[in-house]
Amino acid sequence: MEKNPSIDIDYVANLARIALTEEEKKTFSGQLGDVLGHIEKMNKLDVSGVEPTAHAFPLENVWQEDRAKNGFSADEALANAPATREQMILVPKVVE
Amino acid sequence: MEYEGVIGLEVHVQIKTESKMFTRAPAGYGAPPNTLTDPVVMGLPGVLPVMNKKAIDKIIKAGLLLKCEIAEVCKWDRKNYFYPDSPKNYQISQYDQPICEGGEVEIELPGPSRNVMGEHRMVALTRIHLEEDVGKLNHFDGDSLVDLNRAGTPLMEIVSEPVMHSGDEAFAYLTALKQAMIYAGISDCDMEKGQLRCDANISVRPQGSEILGTKVELKNLNSITGVKNGIDYEIKRQIKAIQTNEPIVQETRRWNAEGGFTSAMRSKEMAHDYRYFPDPDLMPVRVDKEWIETLKAELPELPFEKQRRYQEEMGLPYTITSVLVPDRNLCDYFEEAITDDLKPQAVANWIANDLLRELSNAGRDITDCPIKPTSIAELIRLVDKGVISSKIAKDVFLEMFASGDSPDRIVEKKGLKQSSDTGELTDICNDVISANPKSVEDFQNGKENAINFLKGQVMKATRGKANPKVVDDLLRQILTS
Asked: Cβ atoms within 10 A of the Cβ of A69, count?
């Protein structure tokens, strides 16, 4: 079997804001490497005659008119928040 | 060596709509925190975003106003990043296929004085794309609070080419952009409400060089004046750094408006890596000619086009047009007031001087003006026809503003009609002449000015109601007979 491309697992974990144990790093490096290997295989296909597409159906201009509907109440909006204050979601200090 | 600043601006403008960009939760400013959300805004699993037609109409209008190429087809991309202002961990934006490309904004640089028109030039645009706004973070000492009311609001990003060179130019650019957007009803552009936000990319280079220097991104420019001052400071700082052999590093700096300086923001641990990819939940937008034609028909005249029309076709001076043109409502009012029988300047003078003064004293806006535009025209006609003097007209105007009554009614009610009744006036003139022998003698000895004093006395006796021309004729007639 072809050797899979290596992946910088620390970089990927940092982008996703998740902390991984050494064990997990090993597992996910392998799994993500497999995915990249698969993509690399597909990259070898000649797709010069195929239009890039993100959708299975050639639909365009799927929209609605600009009419507002009622959404969530503040209580509903905050139902999943681990912590709140002053009707806002409380998060650890983030510096811009 | 002489150095010059090079500035490109990224301006975010919220598009005025009732609902959000990709869902029909209500959009707006000032609602209690987290009351303008729904499952799409909150990024809950299983939701499907659906475009807001009005927002697309409006960005195309913006593009047409600013002479952009409108793409036949454009698509949506996900910009991936993790930050508490974005619950679904990506922002829907446009990466490689923006809806508007190119374009230009006409600006007016400051003139030698406020009363003199400055130089006009074009600022080239790179692109305008559509995206969704993110939530608002409120920072405190130990934590941050997130309000997602703003999240999902339609947001245009207008990117200029690096072609501006001073704070004044950036100021003129933002002013022109803002006025055009307000004219077309695309956005209210209130910077205090975050409806218009601006970041500046600034570098310096030796004068005449074509190569761009190291770029610094300047943030926290919260007002148009802040943009101007922040840019001017940053250009000076960079030139000084070069002259003292200090390196300029590519970084993001923050404008401190109170202190009047910029400072480096804590650098991120790594460069941005947004891993853009096409959003599979959204279908592309195709813009055909018919759609564009429909929107073209709804475009307003641009502010500078209007100003040229006022100056060239109506003969209005710059001092007046520079007051009227920035406010579209004021221009609409003016255009409703003018008719073929009136001199546009007479109408414009009343609006730009008297009406604006009274509105400002009363703390009112032109959209809430007690005087109808047709009443201004009526007032001018009363003066033109000699029914009232221009001095009395000022009083009638104040009464119109206070009561909302028509000038005809006020003149009638208060008995302000100018007197041209020569019988009554002759008596008054004779009285004034016998009471002021000194002035009469002066006049008869060739002192032309003396008659003005006598005229003034007659006007006083008639409480301003006499027709000055008639009084003049009568006095001369009596004194020379």
From this structure: 12
Tokens of B354: 């008297």
Contact map slice: A 31-90 vs B, CB within 8 A: 54-55, 59-74, 77-78, 80, 85-90
pLDDT of B436 above 70: yes
Are the beta carbons of A88 and B146 separated by less than 8 Å? yes
Q: What is the pTM of this model?
A: 0.86
Nearest CA in chain A to B279: A54
Among A12, A59, A66, A72, the residue to mutate for chain B (most B Cβ within 10 A): A66
Average pLDDT over residues B345-369: 95
Q: Is residue B395's pLDDT more than 70? A: yes
Residue B192 DSSP one-character state: G
Sign of CA dihedral B303, B308, B314, B319: positive
Q: Which of B42, B50, B253 to mutate to test the interface with A (most CBs of A within 10 A)?
A: B42
Q: At residue B275, what is the residue type?
A: R
**SS3 at position B276:** coil
Residue B255 CB burial class (10 angstroms; 0-12, 13-18, ≥19)? buried
Asked if B27's CB is within 8 angstroms of A68's CB, the reply is yes
State the SS3 of B380-446.
HHHHHCCCCCHHHHHHHHHHHHHHCCCHHHHHHHHCCCCECCHHHHHHHHHHHHHHCHHHHHHHHCC
What is the rounded CA–CA span in Å between residue B97 and residue B295? 21
Q: How far apart are CA A39 and CA A2, in angstroms?
A: 13
Alpha carbons within 13 angstroms on the beta-carbon side of residue B306 total 24
**Residue B348 and residue B373: Cα distance in Å, rounded?**
11
Instruction: Give the pLDDT mean for A48-76.
Output: 91
Spatial separation of the C-alpha atoms in residues A20 and A31, rounded to whole Å:
14
Cβ-contact A88, B136 below 8 angstroms = no
Q: In what order do the strands lie in the sheet with A84-85?
A: A84-85, A88-92, B143-147, B136-139
What is the ipTM metric for this complex? 0.87
Is B266 in contact with A95 (Cβ distance < 8 A)?
yes
Q: What is the mean pLDDT of chain B?
A: 93
Tell me, letter by letter, the H, E, C secondary structure of B29-97.
CCCCCCCCECCCCCCCCCCCCCEEHHHHHHHHHHHHHCCCEECCEECCEEEECCCCCCCCCEEEECCCC
Q: Look at residue A3 in the predicted model and tell me its pLDDT.
A: 58
Residue range B103-122: mean pLDDT, rounded: 96
**CB-CB neighbors (< 8 A) of B25 in chain A:** 68-69, 71-72
Q: Collapse the DSSP code of A79 into the 3-class scheme (helix H, G, I; strand E, B; otherwise coil) and give the result.
A: coil
Q: What is the model's pLDDT at position A96?
A: 52
- What's phi and psi for B25, nearest 5 deg? -60, 145
For the segment B9-56, what is each residue's pLDDT rounded down to a tens digit?
A: 999 999 999 999 999 999 999 999 999 999 999 999 999 999 999 999
Share of chain B above pLDDT 70, in %: 98
Residue B308, pLDDT > 70, answer yes
Task: Please report the number of interchain residue pairs, chain A to chain B, with beta-carbon separation below 8 angstroms.
Answer: 133
* Cβ–Cβ < 8 Å for B112, B71: no
Residue of chain A nearest B54, judged by CA positions: A66
